[in-house]
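Might you be able to consider the sequence and fold that I enclose below?
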Amino acid sequence: MSAIVHDIHIQTWSNPCDPNPCRAGKCELISKTNFTCHCAQYIYGPLCEKLNYEQKACDSNPCYNQALCTNTADNSYTCLCPPSHSGKHCKQNVGECDCLNGGTCQNVTSYDLLYRCQCPPLFTGSLCEYDLRNITFCSYSPCQHNGTCILIEAPAGICLCEPGYIGAFCEKRVPFCQENPCRNNGTCVPSGVDGQCICLPGNSGRVCERLVKTFCSSNP
């Protein structure tokens, strides 16, 4: 019995989602060179860089490839695609297939897809862009809010969160008063996840860190 050998050509390619360019959201690859950011709640902008407490359907960037998003009366949206793309979210290039690493392009009749990639063994991803032999916890840039992904013992890893965020993926914001940030005996007054330090006379600043100079400070 003869063995079946898969001849796989591994291409050199730079993933635009690695590292994650989305500040507070998830990066999704839509072609070899393009991506879109799916923002967390109340976050919007091309890179999920803006905060909006009155979020609308289009604020989460559901449309791809610079398509025009229009909010509808039922709190939904519609995407107006450019001529080069189609689908509900304008995700797919018209007449173009970008499968990598020997992936095979297959036509489909999905409402949102014109094709999908059938990947060879050991590869996965929407474009067959991920080598299963190299995938680790950090491969998909899981850490949110500028958290740093660190491999402990491959493939396992953890997210090191920026100050003010916690959670396995740095997805939760720490309430301002939880860590008692007010200095110089200031009092923290909470308000949701935000808060305010009430400083004693002679101090000022976000956390009462500054000394206010008065006429008597120099002990004339």
Remarks:
- Residues 177 and 190 are 6 Å apart (CA to CA).
- DSSP finds no helices and 20 strands in the chain.
- The domain at 57-93 is CATH 2.10.25.10 (Laminin).
- The chain has five domains: 15-55, 57-93, 104-134, 136-174, 177-213.
